[in-house]
Amino acid sequence: VWYAHEKGWDKEEGIDLDLLYFDSGMAQLNALPAGEWVLCGTGAVPAMMGNLRYNTYVIGIGNDESMTNAVMVRPDSPILKTKGYNPKYPNVYGSPETVKGMKILYTSQTTVHYMIGKWLSILGLTEADVTLVNMEQPSAVPAFEKGIGDAVCLWAPFTFVADSRKWQRAGSMTDMDCITVSSLVGDKKWCDEHPDLVAKFLRVYLRGSNMLREEGPSPRIIKEYRQYMNEFAGIRMTDDEAKLDLQIHPRWSYEETMALLDRTKGDSQADKWQNSVADFFGSIKRFSPAEIQKFKDAKINTDKFLKQVQLPVPSYK
């Protein structure tokens, strides 16, 4: 979306996007009641929380985040002594003995919260068996570097910073078989009142997404991606980090996205992914069974705005 705005593609559709930056999905959601935004890109957990708290839609699917979310430990961590404790997850490190009682840095009510819960369950543990310390991602990395905590749960690009410091991955969400995707979320009331504007926004987004799919991490894209991360997100990246970030975030085409949202044979694939997240938060009693069922019944993923997108989407060239 940043790229599309820089190129003026939003103005070509008759809209002018005002882009805001937030440190995390929960920070985004807390700004919604004040009317600071009506459309956003966010993670799977904030997408669920947005519906439960503020009546939001998921109007589109961004990309697969699973490989970029990881539990990181120091190279000398005892957690690394055991790999595949649970044979169903052969690439996950740790055991009840090496993890129990440890202090873990994470960002509450985000995708890494979901991940830490899955990691602990794989090892036969619960949150009660460890000490969880809630931190925003930019604070968690320097804290861990200073020796605070025994493990830290990160998403990109902070996982790349961790890699550069030679920290080791005890497991990614891909290793733990818990798929999470970024979501395009909208305020339900506003979207229903302005379906034409939502469709135009999605057309702008898809134009940028198609550009990344077709051109990939070329030298030109890497340069502009680093500019985006530095000027908009305030994060400095190397060429290699930018290239990797682009490569391991798979994106779906318009047709593939429509397939992920298709409910002709029951719950869509997007519904199943979201319901897995909801079930986890229900299992740790962050929400009551009634709230989880209400969320599932709400069917927050919708393709009705994508169906209104005027096709074909213009080329990025």
Describe what you observe in this structure.
With 317 residues, the protein is of the alpha/beta class. It contains 15 helices and eight strands. The protein has a five-stranded mixed β-sheet, with helices on both faces. A three-stranded antiparallel β-sheet has the order 1-8-2. Helix 6 links the parallel strand 4 and strand 5. Helix 3 (25-31) packs parallel to helix 4 (44-54), helix 11 packs across helix 12 and helix 14 (269-283) runs antiparallel to helix 15 (289-298). It is globular, with a radius of gyration of 20 Å.
List its salient traits.
single chain; 317 residues; alpha/beta; five-stranded mixed β-sheet; 15 helices
Question: In angstroms, what separates the terminal alpha carbons?
Answer: 16 Å
Main sheet attributes: strand count, strand direction, barrel closure: 5 strands, mixed
List low-pLDDT spans.
Answer: none
Shape: globular
Rg, Cα atoms, Å:
20 Å
Strand order of the largest sheet: 5-4-6-3-7
Record field, number of beta strands:
8
- What's the SSE pattern? HHHEHEEHEHEHEHEEHHHHHHH
Helix content: 40-55%
List the helices and strands and how they pair.
Blueprint: H1 2-7, H2 9-12, H3 25-31, E1 39-42, H4 44-54, E2 56-64, E3 70-73, H5 96-99, E4 103-106, H6 111-122, E5 131-134, H7 137-145, E6 151-154, H8 158-164, E7 168-172, E8 181-187, H9 188-193, H10 195-215, H11 219-231, H12 239-247, H13 254-260, H14 269-283, H15 289-298
Parallel strand pairs: 4-5, 4-6
Antiparallel strand pairs: 1-8, 2-8, 3-6, 3-7
Helix pairs in contact: 3-4, 11-12, 14-15
